């Protein structure tokens, strides 16, 4: 006996993620996400492809209920488009951004260090998929916290494609920002996205690793808020460097400033978190040589760095936590 499909199946999620992946590769997502009516001809220009070919792709997006007609030739995104971006982020992060790990597990089990040098993730894919996930899973809590601080300057460490920072600059017209990331691809995407959003003149993009802050805190100097999203765990094993970065950040903050680190705890046991947290924790421990610290360890590091107070806020992201420390 065949089973009646649920309104949203694995097949639905896979198809939507694939279509959105193509839209992203065509560089038309920024145009679509504005929410304004757009024609296939305008999308073709943005993608630098023939209009006939784009018309076929737009028809597929309409058939998948990602776009809806807005006129004779115009289309707009469906009401749940933002939800589809968010859901697809988990698939693209798991299956695309981490593809080198999924395709070569035996190599990592035999020789983790050697495999890590040979098989590396694409920085742009990590950044874009993280932005899609973060749009609803961890950006909202960070956004609320940062907006409440009413900052004039924000530094985002490991900013990736700078999705969070670009959104904040759009909401804070007198604020400036620094997006720091070690990936050239992510930095290029951040600069492009900032220009498209009209905040390029208020955003500095710096291609540097977070570890560099330990010796040169210039990018964070004078910030009211320093944020870092899912990147501090990458330097946890570099204990002294990790602690020096935290101390430098505290010293660089203006009086009353805050540091907000969005990161994860290992193997969260709650039912809603356990499955994705298991994948996230295992990929980091088994393929990236990163042991995620428990919640109390995160808080202790802030206290040791001299912050007056530190607290933890759970995220919608499975296993995700927002650690907020005040100077």
From TrEMBL:
List, for all copies, the residue spans of the domain called Methyltransferase type: 156-258
Q: Which SUPFAM superfamilies match?
A: S-adenosyl-L-methionine-dependent methyltransferases
Task: List UniProt keywords, sorted A-Z.
Answer: Methyltransferase, Transferase
The identity of this protein, by name, is: Methyltransferase type 12
Question: Which GO terms of the molecular function aspect are on file?
Answer: methyltransferase activity
Asked whether the UniProt record includes Nucleotide-binding among its keywords, one would answer no
The leader peptide range reads: none
The species this protein belongs to is Streptomyces laurentii
Q: Name one Pfam family in it.
A: Methyltransf_12
Q: Does the keyword Methyltransferase apply?
A: yes
Q: Which GO terms describe its biological process?
A: methylation
| Coiled coil location | none
């Amino acid at each position: 006996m065949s089973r009646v499909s649920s309104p949203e199946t694995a097949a639905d999620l896979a198809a939507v993620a694939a279509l959105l992946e193509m839209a992203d590769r065509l560089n038309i997502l920024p145009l679509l996400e504005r929410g304004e009516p757009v024609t296939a001809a305008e999308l073709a220009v943005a993608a630098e492809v023939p209009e006939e070919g784009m018309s076929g792709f737009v028809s597929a997006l309409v058939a998948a209920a990602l776009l809806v007609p807005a006129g004779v030739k115009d289309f707009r995104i469906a009401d749940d488009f933002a939800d589809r971006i968010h859901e697809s982020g988990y698939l693209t992060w798991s299956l695309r951004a981490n593809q080198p790990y999924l395709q070569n597990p035996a190599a990592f089990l035999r020789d983790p260090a050697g495999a890590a040098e040979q098989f590396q993730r694409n920085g742009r894919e990590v950044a874009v998929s993280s932005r899609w996930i973060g749009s609803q899973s961890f950006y909202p809590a960070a956004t609320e916290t940062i907006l409440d601080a009413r900052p004039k300057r924000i530094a985002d460490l490991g900013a990736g494609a700078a999705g969070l920072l670009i959104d904040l600059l759009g909401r804070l017209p007198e604020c400036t920002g620094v997006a720091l990331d070690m990936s050239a691809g992510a930095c290029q995407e951040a600069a492009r996205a900032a220009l498209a959003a009209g905040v390029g003149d208020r955003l500095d993009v710096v291609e540097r690793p977070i570890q560099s802050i330990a010796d040169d805190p210039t990018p964070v100097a004078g910030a009211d808020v320093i944020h870092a999203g899912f990147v501090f765990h990458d330097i946890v094993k570099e204990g002294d460097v990790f602690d020096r970065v935290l101390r430098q950040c505290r010293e660089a903050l203006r009086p009353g400033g805050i540091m907000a680190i969005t990161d994860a705890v290992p193997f969260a046991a709650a039912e809603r978190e356990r499955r994705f947290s298991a994948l996230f924790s295992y990929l980091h421990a088994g393929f990236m040589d990163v042991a995620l610290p428990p919640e109390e360890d995160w808080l202790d590091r802030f206290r040791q760095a001299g912050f007056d107070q530190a607290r933890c806020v759970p995220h919608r992201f499975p296993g995700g936590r927002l650690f907020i420390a005040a100077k």
